[in-house]
Amino acid sequence: MKYKLIQTEWGFFGVVAQDKNVLATYLPGPQEKILRRIKKDWPEAIETNSILPRLCQQVIKYFSGSTVRFSTPLDLSHLTPFRGEVIKACQQIPYGQTASYADLARAAGSPQAARAVGSTMANNPLPLIVPCHRVLCSNGTIGGFSSPNGVREKKKLLQLEGAMNDQQMALAFAR
């Protein structure tokens, strides 16, 4: 198991992988903070510079404002079948677009499970690669975001992608 810190325009992004499969990602922040989180969650992980070079390039491009579709293989073996289906459905939300928790529940084959989808998104081990920031409430509100910077970071990611204009964003936060 290996990890790498990728310097982006937003700070350091963390990636933990085994073989060629991503196990976890960490949204950008100060280097020491991301490193501390990785060491806490994955104490056996060893730092390397040679980890998934294509993914590293994509992360840098994403945070510089380029449209990116991540296609790196993920290790979802530790998830329940339902959570795995939700994660796969979330991966299908295109850059710059959003879906609701109810939309993901339907796509995962459990149309009545929007709350369970919310729980899955709140515990998403692969933020950005699995774009949980693109998931909103059915009533148009922004919903939650479990990153250290909370919904401010979700808003920033959505704005970067052009998924919501300023008026939509204000409306989403007002509800």
Describe the structure concisely.
The protein has helices at 31-41, 53-63, 81-91, 101-107, 114-122, 150-161, 166-174, and strands spanning 2-8, 11-18, 21-29, 46-47, 99-100, 135-136.
Please tell me about this protein's structure:
The chain is α/β, with parallel strands linked by helices and 175 residues long. It contains 7 helices and 6 strands, in the order βββαβααβααβαα. A 4-stranded mixed beta sheet has the order 3-2-1-4. Strands 5-6 form a two-stranded parallel ribbon. Strand 1 and strand 2 form a beta hairpin. The longest helix is centred in the last third of the chain and has 12 residues. The model has no long low-confidence stretch (mean pLDDT 91).
Rounded to the nearest angstrom, the distance between the terminal CA atoms is 43 Å
Low-confidence stretches: none
Mean pLDDT: 91
Helical stretch tally: 7
Query: Based on DSSP secondary structure assignment, what is the total number of beta strands?
Result: 6
Order of helices and strands: EEEHEHHEHHEHH
- Rg over C-alpha atoms, rounded to the nearest angstrom: 16 Å
- Indicate the structural class: alpha/beta
Overall geometry comes to globular
How are strands sequenced across the largest beta sheet?
Answer: 3-2-1-4
Instruction: Name the assembly state.
Output: single chain
Helix content: 40-55%
Largest sheet: 4 strands, mixed
Which strand-content bin applies to the residues?
Answer: 15-25%
